[in-house]
Amino acid sequence: KVENSLAKGSTIIFTTGFLANAVNGEKLAELAGVEYPIVVKHQKATHIVENNSYVKLEKELDLESKISVKDAEIILTAAGKNKIPFLIRSKNTETSIYTLNTHTFSQKDFDKVGEVLLCPRQLGLLDLPRSWTNKIRESFNSGLNIHLDAPSRVVIQPIGNLGWIFHNYNKTETTISFTSDKIVNAKLINGLTGGEFNHSGNNITLNLKPRSRIFVKIN
After folding, report:
1. % of the chain with per-residue pLDDT over 90
2. Is residue 95's pLDDT more than 90?
3. Do residues 116 and 101 lie in contact, with contact meaning Cβ atoms separated by under 8 Å?
4. Nearest-angstrom CA–CA distance, 139 and 165
5. φ, ψ dihedrals at 57, nearest 5°
6. Residue 83: its pLDDT value, please?
7. In this model, does residue 23 exceed pLDDT 90?
8. Residues 44, 62 contacting (CB under 8 angstroms)
9. CB 99 within 8 A of CB 72
10. Is 32 exposed, middle or buried (0-12, 13-18, 19+ CB in 10 A)?
């Protein structure tokens, strides 16, 4: 399935946990450009690395493994006691493969706090700095030729030629900036209210109220 998707020009996003446990993990890790075997040993990152400086995180970041790069570019680096790659891109120019070194929850995490349905703890992944959140979106959306400048918990949902829906899952109002060549000289309508958006060139700025959504429709 991965090879078929790559042949169609799709972007593939692996997690380190998937590569470590997949039946064809070694072959997939080679495609991703990371060392194999991948030892799952949860790491805690207290800082991120930006412009060769350490920036303290608001909440600790859970990492799946102390992964090693073989033939890939490290896009984002986290740090605890040591530097650990967080987002990696394969150097194979014929493919678009990313590896995200993140850990969410395992059954052990639920058992530890006696929980069944609710999240057993908060995730630092949801409170990453805006610069990192933008970089992750930019990487995963590289084939769409769009750019969203927004904090974490803000999601873009492309709807083909109709436009985009922006979701704000934060408890506070936020301002975002969105860029796409599709909006140049286009009339942009609020698909939920019918009003018209003002924009300049290929960029539009939007204010999203807490836990709200906006449908930017191309007319």
Report:
1. 91
2. no
3. no
4. 19
5. -85, 150
6. 96
7. yes
8. yes
9. yes
10. buried
Closest CA to 56 of 130, 154, 129: 129
Do the strands 11-15 and 96-100 form a parallel or antiparallel pair, or are they unpaired?
A: parallel
pLDDT for position 143: 83
Q: Which residue has the tokens 């033939």?
A: 71
pLDDT of residue 115: 94
pLDDT number for residue 93:
85
CB 15 within 8 A of CB 100: yes
Residue 2 phi/psi, 5-degree rounding, is -65, -45
pLDDT at position 197, please? 96
Cα 198 to Cα 212: distance, rounded to the nearest angstrom: 19
* Alpha carbon distances (Å) from 3 to 14, 18, 24, 52, 69: 13, 16, 12, 36, 21
Give the model's pLDDT for residue 142: 82
Residues 6+ apart with CB under 8 A from 107: none
